[in-house]
Task: inverse folding
């Protein structure tokens, strides 16, 4: 072969490689790309921790014990205004697709194929939402098709591990399986968004002959059946085994540690139970506290694995919850009904802060300042472009538009993407429990102001969040101009992204958008 021919072939190869890079960054220099762990907690309220995310310590910060959250925060950045949706499926579908819930239309929790989980209303007919969830293929009814960011990570050279709760798609749809969403390893993830039991003694919801007792029975943990291993511990042990394997592979890894904790049922984790009884808690309150501390122990175990295996300095660790703490049931959390996320109002399923504001921490050695705090706001769909940027995956293609905005400037303290930005929520559904802010609503946060609009009645509430974090003082009548501006912004966005709304039963007409009333 002549030198000229060789040189021509080399140029052609380089051009081809550059063309591929435009579609997705290859995994060269993978040893320099960081590992990423996203530690997602289920139904954890903003105050379900000993780590204060408010300006002052609350009663809950005093009674719960989460030393590893404190440890992570000391090594990273706390976010005091991190938002998700108020219900699990919408949040998790926004995470995996990078789209706002108004766009992907998975606006309530999913489980069974072609079955809505909405409660009914005498006033409105709820929309035909995407109760089958999300997936990566076209043609599935009541499903939003999207490119999973995990698929992009995998294709760029990451080893991708799912451990715990998935809740991306309904039973017998493609999205029910984490494998479909780009994960190479799946530990105990399926369609369900809850669990039948945390107890190994109860086989995590299976009979002795292996039959599930519920659609919520946790799959894949058979080796722990009949033992005293709490589900949170079993998942952690399996995650560590997966990390041991990942280290041998030599690739950067992405671990989605997605706990079923601290979702009901309130089974007692006996490793921690007595200390909370000794604090004067009722048995059920103490049981809830053990779910929290068991989750925190898992966090510490993963941090210890990173330290022991020399991976801590090259691993980004993100802590987050999927929605607010359950506050619509009494008797198992200390406090009056709907106040258990104090100072926030209400909880899971609600448009109020108690339903959507989450505890978030990011540790990134060498990038994030230890012990720092960020008071700027962000929302769950921002995780999609942020994680891909962390992984140095560039110029990627997706079948869906991306609503999320990278929060890396907040981590690096180089900019403020929240400045002038509006955050949007749409829940034209009725979740399972009643309570303040629960019902068909859409809402917007821009700057200090938050507007909540109720589809059934046309009522609008306006709150100044920094001054009124508990959303007790509706200032809609005091500031009609701000109400009008936010209503216009919210209505325009709902129409732009194809948001859904209920219709009135009395006349079959759609409920007005907030800027139409």
Result:
């Amino acid at each position: 072969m002549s030198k000229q021919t060789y040189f021509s072939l080399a140029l052609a190869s380089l051009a081809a490689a550059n063309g591929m890079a435009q579609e997705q960054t290859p995994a060269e220099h993978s040893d320099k790309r960081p590992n990423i762990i996203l530690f997602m907690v289920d139904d954890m309220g903003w105050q379900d921790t000993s780590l204060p995310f408010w300006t002052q310590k609350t009663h809950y910060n005093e009674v719960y014990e989460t030393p590893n959250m404190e440890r992570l925060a000391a090594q990273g950045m706390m976010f005091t205004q991190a938002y998700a949706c108020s219900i699990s499926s919408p949040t998790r579908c926004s995470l995996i697709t990078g789209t706002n819930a108004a766009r992907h239309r998975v606006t309530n929790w999913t489980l069974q194929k072609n079955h809505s989980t909405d409660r009914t209303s005498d006033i409105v007919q709820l929309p035909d939402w995407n109760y089958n969830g999300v997936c990566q293929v076209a043609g599935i009814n009541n499903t939003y098709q999207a490119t999973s960011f995990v698929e992009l990570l995998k294709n760029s050279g990451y080893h991708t591990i799912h451990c715990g709760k998935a809740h991306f798609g309904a039973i017998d749809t493609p999205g029910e399986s984490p494998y479909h969403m780009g994960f190479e390893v799946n530990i105990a993830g399926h369609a369900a968004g809850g669990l039948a039991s945390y107890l190994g003694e109860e086989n995590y919801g299976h009979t002795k002959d292996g039959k599930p007792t519920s659609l919520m029975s946790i799959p894949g943990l058979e080796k722990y059946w009949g033992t005293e291993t709490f589900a949170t511990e079993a998942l952690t042990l399996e995650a560590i085994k997966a990390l041991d394997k990942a280290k041998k592979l030599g690739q950067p890894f992405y671990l989605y540690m997605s706990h079923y904790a601290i979702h009901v049922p309130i089974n007692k984790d006996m490793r921690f139970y007595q200390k909370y009884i000794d604090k004067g808690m009722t048995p059920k309150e103490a049981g809830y506290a053990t779910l929290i501390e068991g989750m925190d122990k898992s966090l510490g175990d993963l941090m210890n694995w990173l330290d022991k295996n020399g991976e801590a300095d090259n691993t980004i660790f993100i802590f987050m919850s999927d929605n607010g703490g359950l506050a619509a049931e009494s008797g198992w959390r200390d406090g009056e009904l709907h106040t258990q996320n104090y100072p926030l109002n209400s909880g899971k399923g609600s448009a109020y802060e108690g339903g959507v504001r989450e505890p978030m921490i990011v540790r990134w050695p060498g990038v994030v300042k230890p012990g720092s705090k960020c008071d700027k706001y962000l929302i769950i769909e921002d995780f999609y472009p942020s994680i891909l940027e962390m992984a140095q995956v560039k110029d990627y293609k997706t079948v869906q538009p991306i609503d999320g905005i990278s929060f890396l400037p907040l981590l690096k303290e180089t900019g403020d993407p929240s400045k002038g930005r509006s955050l949007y929520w749409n829940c034209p559904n009725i979740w399972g429990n009643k309570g303040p802010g629960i019902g068909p609503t859409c809402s917007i946060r821009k700057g200090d102001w938050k507007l909540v609009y109720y589809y059934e009645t046309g009522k609008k509430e306006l709150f100044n969040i920094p001054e009124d974090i508990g959303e007790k003082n509706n200032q809609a009548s005091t500031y009609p101009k701000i109400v009008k501006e936010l209503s216009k912004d919210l209505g325009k966005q709902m129409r732009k992204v194809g948001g859904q709304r209920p219709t009135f039963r009395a006349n079959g007409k759609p409920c007005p958008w907030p800027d139409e009333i």
